[in-house]
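User: My advisor, Dr. K., asked me to get a structural model of this assembly before our group meeting. I'm new to this, so sorry if the format is off. These are the inputs:
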Amino acid sequence: MISSCDLLKNKVCLVTGASRGIGYAVAKRFAACGAAVYANGRREESLKELLSLNGNCSGSVIPLYFDVTDSAAAKKAMMQIKKEQGKLDVLVNNAGIMKDALIGMISKEDMHQVFEVNVFAVMDMLQLAVKLMSRQNSGSIINLASIVGTNGNRGQMVYSASKGAVISLTKTAAKELASRHIRVNAVAPGVIDTDMFRSIGEEKMKEKINLIGMNRAGTPEEVADTCIYLASDLSVYVTGQVIGVDGCEVI
Amino acid sequence: MTNLEKYKKAFLESLEVSEDQLEGLEYQKIESWDSVGHMNLVAALEEAFDIMMDTDDIIDLSSYEKGKEIMRKYDIEL
Ligand SMILES: NC(=O)c1ccc[n+]([C@@H]2O[C@H](COP(=O)([O-])OP(=O)(O)OC[C@H]3O[C@@H](n4cnc5c(N)ncnc54)[C@H](OP(=O)(O)O)[C@@H]3O)[C@@H](O)[C@H]2O)c1
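Assistant: The format is fine. Below is the predicted structure of the whole assembly, which you can bring to the meeting.
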């Protein structure tokens, strides 16, 4: 774990869903590595802890309140970044939701909701970010996928399909944007200890951990470290990749 | 530079056309206004007027004249 570095010095980054879990860790770590981090949250109080980092890290945290499914609000946020910074170097599409149900019990409403947040909003944010990144002819877009997006998982037909979509859109965008030097990669976590993981209940958590070669859940910081690599110039020749952060989980 | 001059410049530079070609110019009627040229044109217009166009407007931008109409939606008088 890197506690601080200057790998992201002078980089302007936007992290969606930064109020807790992986997004919170990514925003915190990016700021510790010198970035100007635009942290997205839905409610004003939700970014309090992140904002308290200002003055205590080499970078900075700037709040951006909007729901990622609200295209007009997302566009306004992107305009704000353009006005204040004149550029965007990194977008982390992290905001996501999970709704599990067995086949036969999946409501249309849940299907829509999951795809709105996990897929449509990701494509929306990507299109907006590309507007800024094209001007500067560089950029890195990091999408949070999941190991279930490639392997599937019982009870997760909708969620796994949404993450599968994230993987394929990542690969397509990488191909389309390579000539503009905009890199697009996905991080595919396995089991990470956040509210999302805890929402499945203790028994299922144990079951899941038994499938992991390293025999423990990962931490949000461990996912964030992979994001630092993809956001930084250490990965300038890496695009269209899906990087697993799963402690050797077998599904 | 007036707004109309800025608007014309975006077309001239991104589509590599001459001024006398502008009137009646339509998407995909000349080689340089293909989908790549279109995205360059959108970027040039956004840069010139400091706007971000909605996807629907980007799709609707089918001619030099139509573009003028769309610019009005962003409070740009030409
Ligand atoms: N944890 C895991 O084991 C795991 C594994 C694989 C992939 N992932 C992926 O990693 C990402 C982060 O997961 P996590 O475990 O950190 O989840 P989490 O603890 O449930 O946090 C989700 C974050 O997304 C935000 N969010 C949800 N809907 C939003 C919306 N419409 N607009 C803006 N923000 C929204 C939440 O904001 P609020 O606080 O406002 O709700 C919260 O900040 C997700 O894409 C998830 O699918 C997680």
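One thing worth pointing out at the meeting: Chain B has four helices and no strands.

User: Perfect, thanks a lot.
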